[in-house]
Amino acid sequence: MDKWICVICGYIYDPAKGIPGAVAPGTAFADLPEDWVCPECGSPKDSFEPYTE
Amino acid sequence: MSERLTPAGRIEIDGRIFNPYSKDFIRNPDPSWQVLLRDYPIAWHKDLQMWLISSHELCDRLLKDTRFSPYFGHWEHAPPPKAEADKNDFDRAYERGFFAVTNREHLRLRKLTMPAFSRPVMGRIDAKIRDLVVGCFDEIGDADSFDAYTALAAKIPVRAIARMVGVPTDMEAFFHQFAVDIIKCTRINIGPKEREAAMRATLPGFEYFKTVIAERRALPHPGDDFIGNLVGAVENGERLDDYEILSVIFALITAGSDTATDLHTYLLHALLSHPDQLALLRQQPELMENAIIECLRWGSFGKMPFFRFAVADTEFAGQLIRKGQGIGVNISAAWHDPAKWPDPTRLDITRRLDGNIVFGSGAHFCIGTYLVRVQGSLMLNEFMRRYPDATLADGTGDIDYEYTHHNARRINRLIVRTHLRQRQPRAA
Prior knowledge:
- The structure holds two protein chains of two kinds.
- Chain A contains no helices and three strands.
- Chain A is mainly β.
- Helices cover 50% and strands 11% of the residues of chain B.
- The longest helix of chain B has 31 residues, at 242-272.
- Chain B starts with a strand and ends with a helix.
- Chain A binds chain B through residues 5, 7-12, 39-43, 47, 49, 53, and chain B through 60, 64, 107, 110-111, 114, 117-120, 122, 354-355, 359-363, 365-367, 369-370.
């Protein structure tokens, strides 16, 4: 599954890890709720882009 | 009376409630913040001539609300727009920069620049600036005591940013002054003459970077460093123009040099005044990032708030904010809001910091957030390695502040005792 980066703050969502205490590991970015916001800066989901290292 | 309700229901306060210039406030701000948080989470400040927003909930909400802009040109007292022919490099870079452009353009700029600021890239910066940090500690050596401000805080941030941007070492002082002048250009808490003088003083700095950008554009490959990445950045076939690149450089240096000065003094002050927390960090170095954010929250070094400007008449938290009025987003107070942070004056490096606004919130979230963490961890790791028994001199560090600083409660003296000389004979 692809990683996604918040273009506002640089936070990287890694579906393999999820977000401890909030999003289960294995949750694809597309499956996050539409009102989900970046845990780092609070920006909306459409501030994210696919991320390749 | 320091507060009154106007016929329109506007809540008003004045300098008797909140005076960011007073020495008492600079030395001990929490009592003022608690009054604001309890009684005036939003109020019009008659002396500062701006709204003051102080609660965590309202600061967070306002920073994400696009009806409030960080663009100085929206301020009711901003100088009138200049004719195109009269604009200088500062004007052009500012107009093309993060604070001034539309939301769509802002997202484009962030997309083009974020790769240069992401966590993995900043992780690699660690290797690029480590020697600068080590060098500052080498200069301290095994002294019995040192001033954390002059030995570390005044040197590391500006040297690190200069290294990132590729400024030669012998131009660091010039570069630091460039950063300070850029910040002053749009501060609404200083007078128009001082702002204008600061703007003129930035022009040689812009000229320097324009030359660097032109040189890079002339190369077959612009380079893999920070400026090279900006010159080479492409999004849907579009590149950054010169003024957009200048605006990114000026965003980086304003956030990363003068502001980051306070990072180092406040980190050391927080941990050395809480030896239990410093010991915990030594035992659990994986807490480093959390510790840095918690120390910044606890120390809350801001004096003046962030500024925003209403782009239209807007009702917010029951108050009518008129188009063009300035709003001070008092995030330093918000970092001590007991509604968000139980026991806010307690330093706890294990504290859950979810939803913190230590680096702001929303579209203008601090672009240098990972750089701050890298720089702070490098400094703290080196400090802990070299000075395992360090304490604040006389228990207080003989702390003093630069009371006239335009923006921060700047600590300009913090004496650290290393206790190395007592330690060495024992070891021998």
